[in-house]
Amino acid sequence: MISFFRKLTWLMRRRRKEDELGEELRFHLEEEAEQRQTEGLAAEQARWAALRDLGSIASVQENTRVSWGWTTLEQLGQDVRYALRTMLANKAFTALAALSLALGIGANTAIYSFMDTLLLRSLPVQDPGSLVLLNWQAAGRGQDAERSPSIMHGVHTRSGSSYRDPQKGYIGGIVPYAAFELFRKDDSAFTSVFAHYQPSSFTLSVKGEADIASGEYVSGDFFRGLGVPAASGRLIVSDDDRAGAEPVAILSHSLSQSRFGGPAQAVGQSILINNIAFTVAGVTPPEFFGVNPGIAPDFYLPMHANLLFGGDIAGWYLAQNTYWIEVMARLRPGVSIQAAQATWAAPFRQWVESTATNDQERANLPVLLIREGGGGLDALRRRYSKPLYMLMTLVGFILAIACANIANLLLARATARRREMAVRLGMGATRSRVVRQLLTESILLASLGGILGLLVAYGSIRFLTLLLGNGALHSSLDWHVMGLAGALSLLTGVVFGLVPAIQSTRADVIPALKEVRASHTPSRFRVSLSQVLIVAQIALSLLMLVAAGLFIRTLSNLQSVQLGFNRDNLLLFQLNARQAGHQDAEITSFYTELQKRFNALPGVRIASLSHESLLNAGTGQPISVPGAERDSKTRLLYVGPAFFTTMQIPILLGRDIDDRDQPGSPAVVVISEQFAKKNFGEENPLGRHLTLGGRDPRDMEIVGVVREARYGGLKREVPPVVYIPYNQGSHKAVAEMTFVLRTSSDPLGFVNTVREIAHQADARVPVSNVQTQSAQIDELMGQEIAFAKLCSAFAFLALVVACVGLYGTLSYNIARRTGEIGIRMALGARRGSVVWMVLRDVVVFAAAGLAISVPIALATSTLVASFLFDMKPNDPLALTLAVVILLASALLAGYAPARKASRIDPMIALRHQ
Amino acid sequence: MSVKPPSRVELLQGTLDLLILQTLLAGPTHGHAIAKHIQRTSEDLLQVETGSLYPALHRLEAKGWISATWELSDKGKRAKYYRLTPLGRKQLATEQSKWQAFSRAMGLIVNPEVL
Q1: In this predicted structure, what is the pLDDT of residue A470?
Q2: Mutate which of A60, A61, A509 to test chain B, going by most B C-beta atoms within 10 A?
Q3: Strand (E) or helix (H) holding A665
């Protein structure tokens, strides 16, 4: 209230001062006139002389106001008000400009938020700068790029932590437990050394409700080393991380909220993880997501808790050549990475040398590689950085086109407002004052674009989350990203408002005031800024069109990939009975029973199961044909009865796996056509035998040969595959199985029934990853779909914006040339020739744009080669199509103004002069 | 454009304040009279631009060196009369001594033979 009154009195005082100034000046004029009259001038003349002497009253008033001290703010207010009025008066202009900016800024902000999350931001932990990753590098062997060095006898990891670097050779993120113990022995370089291994999925049961959740094993010093405090309770400490310790779990903040209603309620509760009781000891803070940006585990377990889940884990802790844990450390203050590397290189070498078992291993030992760890693990960074940079470039283009468009619109408007500016300047406004006002307008416009852009960004982040990472990636709008949006809009406002503002205030007052429409014909050969902008827009649009063409073709190539099975009306879902507490032999009967129940469901034509879904499969195990060479390319799939009938994979010879194939009955196997050709040539493979290698080799009889079906993704070459009954013993214990249901109607209609049946069979076994086969295929093509969709949307956007710009410029030029065109028509020019005259400009613009962009497109499309499938980067079809679309749209944009020009009535046009 | 007699000299930057304060030393008066007084006293050599007189008056008022009241002029019309404040007197003294130092310095350089 007080400030309101202050404002009111301020306004009143302001009004009074204004009146007083007017009166003062009036008095001055009267005095002056009177004096002149006494000097002998006529009354009227004296008055004029006095006025002339005073100069511009407005200008005197303006200058006087400056001395009152509140002008700057007041002028800003005036400018903003005026700007809002002009924006409202030109709704179409405002809407167009704000919308194109909003799309540009929004798209940039959205992509940037992902880059920020994945590539730029540090871990939300104490002093991330002093964290390091303890990795190693090895030259590796020959061309077999995917192969790990032979020193790694046992490798237990999910993809990502180790990879081949083109410069450094094989980079290993995982080490044996013994190496971790080695690093912990000496604390001269590190204040703490801690380990973890990548999250895996567990069956988590809270208050009788089972679900799949991801959990990460961490060493006792993990949280202390990172410097993460507990949001509630306590985090894992060293004493928790030993064999036989009380089993405790730490929940993530979001899990504590979704399952317990909050961190405080979760602490002390008992939960079942894979059917083993754990006590919730604490909850991590909400901003903590582990050490892998973009992927947040649901809970954390002490590393040694993995002993509780059975298997031969105890051996992992002792085996010197089993690589499985990832180690991080915090540098002691004052110790650099190089110093730490120097300190540890020799001890590590000594240790690793002691683990080598033969000369080949000794010749190619891993070398310690200490890397910055403040950003966390970089598996996702490696995977997404290229796509993200590419998308960032594309959205950068969009913003550039939008900016060019706005600059063009502002330029055109500035020219249209030359008289207004001339009047302002003529009345005594300084140039800086007018520029300031024009800048206020453009910044206001840009801010509007920025605000709308944030909305666009909010929407597209959610869209991108689904498209890019199938929902595995997380990103959100935060102040980093908002700041970027703000900076972007301010920058566009200033940069693209300044040039037109300066240009329009440069006008000489007198000619501008006298200027009559159409008296000013721009010479044809002078290249104006607006023409340059149009050509740039056309050039950028073509690049986007080419990119869109390439990605759309890639997607269609992928979509037409021969699957080898029928994708329609298939429902996939996973069950893991072992995690829920079922034991070995009984697991198979549990699954067999379930399969029977699903088969009996009305609407389900047939049901089967395999240990992995075909397209996600990737299991290799030595398989040998007596008398043939061993082949490491062969892959296998453990399947249930009627698998081929369910998937509709044609059986070429022999039979499907069926109910005859029981535990204890003669071991059988079905092979793929390729495997048959490779190992048996033209001979009949039925009745021949294979040996499944591993700990207890097993002899199997071939009972069937099936047609090729896609295995392990869409892009990879189909490997030779052998299909083995899952219930006749396998190289690893039967645990998780993927069921497939062939339904007679929409598969998603069966989801609830499936859940009910599973729940009835055993409530502890959650149904997870429920999706249709088609959805799974789309998911596999996620990046390609995303690129194709985004690029075509971007290209369309770019094209529309560029065409609108072209249309605007042409219309404006024609309006200015009305007189000229009128004369031409009066002299006998035909309508057709007038249309052609305008379209010729379009063709020139387009040709200039193409001349710039086609070579660029040819040169840069190789950069996206890795994103393409089954095609060359310089695809002539995509390029030709892009050029044709661009030319057609440009001509279309030019046709309307051209037609309008040809309809000019010479009489009216000439009378205008 | 107004045509000025060649005999007139441009006001030096920053001297208008001094001229106004000096003029007001003689007693309160209005803007027009201040301009005329400066012109007359300088034997028409100095012409005060109205465009800079009023901003200057308002600026001095804002600084508190002069104050203003509305009074009736000798011809019976309402006019804004300016007068020196005590602060203004002090300011005048500083401006005077500054100017004297300046003009002496200029004199020394431009007319060395006078000494």
Answers
A1: 54
A2: A60
A3: none
